[in-house]
Amino acid sequence: MSKVVYEIVEHDGGWAYRSDGVYSETFPSHDAARAAAIRVAREQKVPGTDAAISFETADGKWHEEQVDGHDRPTTEVKG
To answer: What's the CA gap between 42 and 75, in Å, rounded?
Structure first.
């Protein structure tokens, strides 16, 4: 199982949450950014439906697999 970490950081004259190097929109306060990160972290845990997916790897090969909609990551909000 994977883990998604949301970190609250100063960004673009305000505050944002960042995960894996990607920033959210900018919020006017640390509290607002943290609240948004908590909401997003909770949404990550909501199960979905099973699905067939296809994706291309870095070496150019295509793969198809069935994914379990209940295989959700753990989440953490820091900051």
So the answer is: 8
